Amino acid sequence: MNATRTPLRAAPAAGRLHLLVFRPPAEEVAPVCPLMKALDELEEARAASYVSVRDRIQYVTAHAALRGLLAAYTGLEPGRIAIGRGGEPYGKPRLIDPPVPLHFNLSHSHGLIAIGVAAAPVGVDVQRVPSPEAVEMVLPRLHPREREELRALPDEERALAFARLWTRKEAYLKGLGTGLTRSPAADYLGDRDARGRPDGWTVRNVPVQPGYAAAAALRNHPT
């Protein structure tokens, strides 16, 4: 899996991932950025539901940037891109009738945004490194071998290692389209045995600023 800037108005080549990781602006930019006006009704309603201005800016920026990137690949205007969800109401977002085979995924958390676009199913995730207490609460939900690996680490290394593992896991589950409706214990995404990870997927962490972890998952063949 290689992150790349690919030719526009065509899906990324097989095995290639166009990945963006960035921070949202510190203040509202809608008046000077046309992309901010391209959200659909559901996105506008979701944005309006945020009580925190910072969270609203992050949401709007993430979805506006996604539409801009999809517009570059499809040749459609950002506001005319139709995004639906497969299966359940909270299923994986997808393009409706895309002019090129295109998959995408989006994640935003605590001031960091990640967007992935590829010709095959893709998942991305960003997280802030949690507290040791939060790690202890989630450890029982992990795959047994993942728990064993984390327990073997020194206390001062465990939170970051957990964050890196959890972003790999969420990226993979988002790529599958299940999210956390699939048990986090069902699949091994640990560090010690890369061959023990799910077949047919490449899952890697992405370098980000201190205090955060990020990962991307890409299916090894288009669908």
Automatic annotation (TrEMBL):
Q: Does the keyword Iron-sulfur apply?
A: no
Domain annotation 4'-phosphopantetheinyl transferase: ranges: 121-184
* InterPro entries reported for this sequence: 4-PPantetheinyl_Trfase_dom, 4-PPantetheinyl_Trfase_dom_sf, P-Pant_transferase_sf
The record, for Gene3D superfamilies, names: 4'-phosphopantetheinyl transferase domain
For this protein, what is any one GO molecular function term?
transferase activity
Coiled coil located at which positions? none
Q: Which UniProt keywords apply?
A: Transferase
* Pfam families in alphabetical order: ACPS
SUPFAM superfamilies in the record: 4'-phosphopantetheinyl transferase (SSF56214)
Instruction: Work out whether the entry's keyword set contains Ligase.
Output: no
Which superkingdom does the taxonomy of this entry point to?
A: Bacteria
Similarity comment: Belongs to the P-Pant transferase superfamily. Gsp/Sfp/HetI/AcpT family.
Instruction: Supply the name of the protein.
Output: 4'-phosphopantetheinyl transferase superfamily protein
